[in-house]
Amino acid sequence: MCNMLIKKLIVTTMFVSIFSVASVQAAGDVANGKKLAEEDCEDCHGDDGLGDEDNPPIAGMDPKEHIQELMDYKSGKRVDENEDMEAEDMSEQDMADVAAYYATLPGPPPKK
Q1: How many domains would you assign to the chain?
Q2: What is the mean pLDDT of residues 50-69?
Q3: Where are the alpha helices (DSSP H) in the chain?
Q4: Which of 31, 33, 86, 89 is surrounded by the fewest CB atoms within 10 Å?
């Protein structure tokens, strides 16, 4: 009985550790994200990330949602109507970095 509890504790600890490491690795580097955004994103989304009539705002966006959208563009699951999206050349770390950067910017004001 005691051995069974110890095994369960070990398995649970390993499981939690694996997911803790994965979440740390998924964290983005804001400084690199800013650099990438200046190179690849600002032409369409603006230097404030608020977009325009043709491009949606990405400032203040939830990083997980932003990464998922970038991954969907890269895989072809989502298509950019303007055909300007730069995601096809981005690594997952680049996506995390860009998402971390835009999450630090204030989002658009609420619609009235």
Answers
A1: 1
A2: 95
A3: 2-25, 30-40, 42-45, 63-75, 92-103
A4: 89
